[in-house]
Amino acid sequence: MARAGLTTERVVVAGADLADEVGFGHVSLSALARRFGVKDASLYSHVKNLDDLRTRIAFLAGAEMIDRIAEAVAGRAGQDALAAFADAYREYALEHPGRYAATQIRIDQSLAASSPAFARTAEVTYGMLRAYGLDEPDLTDAVRLLRSTFHGYCALEATGAFGASRDVRTSWTRAVAALHVTLEHWPREASTS
User: Fold this and answer.
1) Confidence of residue 1 (pLDDT cuts 50, 70, 90)
2) pTM for the full model?
3) d(Cα 116, Cα 160) in Å, to the nearest integer?
């Protein structure tokens, strides 16, 4: 019988909330158990261990993030879609730092492949890039460029690392515009098939 009204969903959401408060790296089963007023062992009916909890938080956060991004890009294309995608990504990363950190962990590919959020992320991202006419392997390279640029910018912004007096939002908008130009003029690699 579940104690304190615990369910797997409640445990994972509470873990995600805790991650936003204290940082993803500081989430522990003990801290989560204290939040519910139960012993650590009570959580093992809902998550296997800390790694399982962290993976579940990553899937939850990934689903929340892609839902926000999908809503932002709906009905848009090209530069407008890229800007909406980028802004939704940045807003989520800054509003939910612990959840966002969870989306950056390495997840076993067999688990990721079974995740609806993982599939939706690929669908929305590749759909947004469709306007640029990229095919593989260029498409994968473009996705990696966007992810690394967005992540790097958000990580630096979150720690206050941009010290120049220029407005951070203005720089973000200019960076996204530069990515649009890059995608429009992508140095296409010849297909190897």
Assistant:
1) very low
2) 0.91
3) 34
